[in-house]
Write a structure and sequence with these properties.
Elements lengths: L3 E9 L2 E9 L11 E2 L4 E2 L20 E6 L2 E5 L1 H5 L8 E8 L9 E9 L2 H17 L2 E8 L2 E10 L2 E7 L20 H14 L12 H14 L19 H15 L10 H32 L1
Parallel strand pairs: 1-7
Antiparallel strand pairs: 1-2, 2-8, 3-4, 5-6, 7-9, 8-11, 9-10, 10-11
Helix pairs in contact: 3-5
């Protein structure tokens, strides 16, 4: 069982569900320390008091807010724990909404909400089944680590998961990145949709969804431990300049088909060819009209 991060309750109308919170994710990345390269001595970050010019133990360190130059108000952990907020003690459900109504950019890290004791088992199961039957998620407010946040409660198998959410003013306007304003043809769109179709999967299972970076790093560490040559680095393919978007899409679809063992001989752009065929009669008609006009002008110019 992961360690408890926070203990409190879910407030669901007049129903109270005692719970404790455990992280729903874990980090498997390889972690590094900093070392002095000349003698491989460990380099550490030490906490020094500016006024006394000495290292301070953790027991003498607290939080403070500088409201003016050199004017500081000390805030203790006990004071943060006893904030005059109902959400400091409970995850208060505010509303129920369809999951698709929430912009995914607002959804952050996830935590498992674990019923705390037998008294919480039945109301926890009630909320879980109600969420499942309603096909909605709950939006709640809670206060952890010195701030109040919005949260999203959803189901994952038989567990209720709390996702931290960003407040609306924490999400930047997309206009800030100045999205390009270009014209895309229907043929190019058809090619992109063909590529999406070839790359579509029902789940995220497969070797392409594994952490190859950590695996490669582990191999380097193992080689250095055993004083063996480092693994050879494969030469990355140099991306070519995209001069013809349709050609790039066609080649991408062919590669996607080949990676799945499908026949790559078939033409993947049948729909764009149909549109081209519709335009050809108009071009021929225009050519005939031009010929007639030219023929009519020749006697006058002669």
């Amino acid at each position: 069982m992961p360690r408890t991060i926070w203990s409190g309750a879910i407030s669901f109308g007049l129903v109270t569900i005692p719970i404790h919170v455990a992280s729903a994710t874990e980090n498997h990345s390889i972690q590094f320390h900093q070392y002095h390269l000349e003698d491989m001595g460990r380099v550490r970050v030490r906490k020094i008091c500016d006024l006394e010019d000495r290292e301070i133990p953790q027991s003498e360190i607290g939080k403070g807010y500088e409201y003016a130059k050199d004017q500081i108000v000390a805030i203790s952990d006990a004071e943060l724990k006893d904030l005059p907020l109902p959400t400091a003690k409970a995850i208060e459900i505010q509303a129920f909404v369809p999951l698709e109504s929430i912009d995914p950019i607002r959804i952050a890290e996830g935590y498992y909400l674990v019923p705390d004791g037998q008294v919480a088992a039945k109301p926890y199961k009630l909320l879980r089944q109600a969420l499942a039957r309603s096909s909605k998620v709950a939006i709640a407010k809670y206060a952890w680590s010195g701030r109040e946040r919005l949260g999203l409660l959803r189901l994952r198998d038989d567990a209720i998961v709390l996702h931290a959410m960003r407040w609306p003013d924490e999400v930047r306007d997309p206009a800030a990145v100045d999205p390009p304003n270009e014209t895309v043809s229907e043929e190019e769109l058809d090619g992109a949709l063909a590529l999406i179709d070839r790359m579509s999967q029902d789940d995220l299972e497969g070797p392409e969804f594994t952490d190859t970076y950590t695996d490669a790093l582990a191999k380097i560490i193992e080689s250095k431990r055993e004083d063996k040559p480092l693994p050879e680095t494969p030469e990355p393919e140099q991306p070519g300049k995209v001069l013809d978007l349709m050609a790039a899409l066609t080649e991408s679809v062919q590669q996607a088909k080949a990676s799945r063992g499908e026949d790559t001989d078939a033409d993947v752009h049948e729909m764009p060819k149909k549109r081209t065929a519709k335009k050809q009669p108009a071009k021929k008609a225009a050519a005939k009209k031009t010929t007639k006009k030219t023929t009519a002008r020749r006697p006058r110019s002669a």
